Amino acid sequence: MSDYQSRQERRKSNSKKKPPSKKRGKSGLFKKILLTLVILFLVGIAAGGITAIAYINNAPELDPDKLANPQSSVILDRNDEEVQTLAGTDAREIAKFEEIPDVVKKAFVSVEDTRFYEHFGIDPKRIGGAVLANITQGFGAEGASTITQQVIKNSLLTSEKSLERKVQEAYLSVKLEQEYSKDQILEMYLNKIYFGNGAWGVVAAADTYFGKNLIEEELTAGEAAMLAGLPQRPSYYDPFENPDAATKRKNIVLSLMEKEGVITTEEADKFQAEKVEDMIVAKTEDTKSDQYKVFMDQVVKELRERDDITEKDIYSGGLKIYTTLDTRAQDITTEVVANYPYSNEDMRSGLVLLDTKTGSIRAIGETRKDENVITYATTGGFQPGSTAKPIIAYGPAIENMQWSTGRSLKDEPLKIGEANIRNWDRNYRGQVSMRRALEMSYNVPAVNTFLDVGEKPAQEFANKLGMNLEDDQMVPTAAIGTFSTSPLQMSGAYAAFGNGGTYNKPHSVRKVVFPNGQEINLEPESSKAMNDYTAYMISDMLKSVVDSGTGTDAKIPGLPVAGKTGTTNHDASVIQEQGFPTSGIVKDAWFAGYTTEYSMAVWTGYNKPNAHYLDSSKGEDDTSKLLFKEIMSRVSEGINTADFQKPDSVIEVGVEKSTGLLPSDYTPKDKIVYELFVKGNTPEKTSTKYQQPDGVTGLSGQYNVDSNSIALSWQPGEDKKFTYKVEMSVNGGGYQSLTETGDTSFTIENVEKGSDYKFKVTAVTEAGVSTKPSETTVSVPAEPEPEPEEDTEEEQEEETPPEEGNEEGDTTGNGDQNGDGNQGEEEPPAEDNGGTPNEDGNNEGQNDGEGNTGSENGNGNDSDTGSGNENGNSGSNTGNDETNSDTQSNAPASDSTAPNNQND
């Protein structure tokens, strides 16, 4: 037969051969994958076994003392000095297994470990459920711990969620079951666990919450259920602080007790109807550690918030807790808060003192007079009022838009929705600078600033400062503090302004060290919340608040302090319902401030705010400022507190108050302020608001020969009260200031003859603006040069007494007083004579200064020889400056027009 096959036959033949080949390929691949998995599983087991053996070898021994008693945790202050311990053997009472009521034991088994009496230390079923949860929800999502495992974890291990800890816990739990009975293990558990509020073990818990002695008195199923529900989350299920949550938890435990047959359905219904508020007694404060209790509460609160540390670790884990506590500052704070003379015994206060540079909490203060303690300082939930303005409005404006501290803001009637935004004084100023608006705490400019900044930028800025504001809180009125916050948050936010813009989350714990040496660093990382120019410019404006604004009551001499006041008001409905006064009252009062060393926020108000008010007439709204001042001044003693340093990114420029522009030459000095600008954002335009005022008019100067002085006089150019600046230049020299006077005249004495005087008078307004100067010139004549004297050949003849009836003055007169007088009949003097007529005789003076002989017809009565100086007539006004007596001068006559220059 031919070997030839048709195409169709060949296709059929090939199709029959292919399936066997394909089957062999799939089978081979599967075998390879399976072999690989087996190998990896065996390697994993081997590796896991080796690792598990290593973990087990490092596990601690079963220490009976640690199993029975909690290890006290030690608290250390900022200097690593021990200040107190938490819990400890002496803080609790132990109950034997048989002394613990059966209902209590069964309640705990029902909720914590239903197969407790069946497993060998670990429960495979619970492990399976936990593994599934961890695979679907992530490692650590659900625990599989039995009561035995919890005893091991609380006594010997940490709460760290690691494979090593889990392996050691399982190993030690099995070992514990081999060495102790179930009843002994349950007794350890019930005496060791923490129930909150300082209660260790069921004995302390029964007394703390019900006022019962567990050993001598029976507990109801409802009470047992409440206790059994607490250890899971003692803080959250705290019946004093959160009764609703505690009630729900109690009822869940009762349902489990019913399911396990511990109680009947009727009993479950009965006790589920009970509210824990009706079951518990009044809370009593722990007086053993009152000294630093407020601070320690914050320490515990911070540690509770961590996943790697449980409350059991905190109180019984033998931890070393390194805190930020400054015992000196805390002692000062506690003393001031406790002894402040509150005008109302119902007033409350809360404050937090931080290290500005690190955010470390140095002290916490709050009044604790209430049955249910309210953490006013750290939890709060109060509206901050105007202390929010730097955080929500002005800080974001500088940061995002580089506004200056002198930015002109609108201050006019403003309505947001149905709300009218008003300033505290109910006045509007049209325009006001940002500095002044913050200094005087005006509301309208702050809200307008928020509107300019925008919700998102404001929210981002605030949340970088730890405010944690949600979108629905970012309304325009947030700028004036309509959201809730606490002194803890506010002190942290303000500290960033004093720290150059770097934010550190407020914290009370630095690190925690476990007994096995494991260390957890709890110092938060710093973050840049804003530019240094924003921080400095806000700080500089807040210094103005303290120096001259609404915060002057917080001013501390010699200490550079920046800060802000804040108040909130009651709703109109509350005022009406309570019959409160309609003015002069506030709901809350704040002061938040800082130095370069410390930051502090203080709240004052009432635990029931709608039933009370702070009375401004009694100064109750000033309490926050006064508390701040007292504490800040005392903690700052002995510290060289530096002022805030201006960064290179900020420059100071003088601008007009009203326009924010550069001042012109005519801008009054009192209208110029020096404000801060972000470098590169200074104003370029010069204001034209003010024009140069008219100066003086009619300036003239007159020289007075007799007094050798120059008298200046002028008139004001406008009807204004000027100060006049008078300047003088002599013979072309530089001007020198003579005086500043409010008069319109001035006299210059003892001028220099033969000199040219130029005068300049400038009018200066009360605001310091100078007008154009007015000028005048006065020339002082030179003193005439005397001609040389001629020698005379004839000697002066002796005076011959005149005959009776004729007196001839024979003395030659000088230019001042010399002249010969004749007493004859009175005749008018000759023209050009310098003499003056005597009573009866004629007196003729010569132009050369020599007196003429009078006529002989004069009366001879009472006549003497006339002396030129005394009895003779005056000669001409020229001659020598010297007064010559009894001598005749031959000096030539002077120009008759020369001024009188008579010497005294």
TrEMBL record:
The record's region (Disordered) falls at 1-25, 767-904
**Which Enzyme Commission number(s) are on file for it?**
2.4.1.-, 3.4.-.-
Q: Where is composition skewed (Basic residues) in this entry?
A: 13-25
Q: Pfam families of this UniProt entry? A: fn3 (PF00041), Transgly (PF00912), Transpeptidase (PF00905)
Stated name of the protein = Penicillin-binding protein 1A
Q: Please list the residue ranges that the record marks as compositionally biased, kind Low complexity.
A: 838-882
Q: Where is the composition biased (Basic and acidic residues)?
A: 1-12
Q: Which reaction does it catalyse?
A: Preferential cleavage: (Ac)2-L-Lys-D-Ala-|-D-Ala. Also transpeptidation of peptidyl-alanyl moieties that are N-acyl substituents of D-alanine; [GlcNAc-(1->4)-Mur2Ac(oyl-L-Ala-gamma-D-Glu-L-Lys-D-Ala-D-Ala)](n)-di-trans,octa-cis-undecaprenyl diphosphate + beta-D-GlcNAc-(1->4)-Mur2Ac(oyl-L-Ala-gamma-D-Glu-L-Lys-D-Ala-D-Ala)-di-trans,octa-cis-undecaprenyl diphosphate = [GlcNAc-(1->4)-Mur2Ac(oyl-L-Ala-gamma-D-Glu-L-Lys-D-Ala-D-Ala)](n+1)-di-trans,octa-cis-undecaprenyl diphosphate + di-trans,octa-cis-undecaprenyl diphosphate + H(+)
Chain intervals with Acidic residues compositional bias: 784-810
Q: Give the keywords, sorted.
A: Carboxypeptidase, Glycosyltransferase, Hydrolase, Multifunctional enzyme, Protease, Transferase
| GO terms of molecular function | glycosyltransferase activity; hydrolase activity
Q: Which CDD domains does its entry note?
A: FN3
Annotated ranges, domain Fibronectin type-III: 692-785
InterPro entries hit by this protein: Beta-lactam/transpept-like, FN3_dom, FN3_sf, Glyco_trans_51, Glycosyltr_51/Transpeptidase, Ig-like_fold, Lysozyme-like_dom_sf, PBP_transglycosylase
Matching entries from PROSITE patterns are given as: FN3
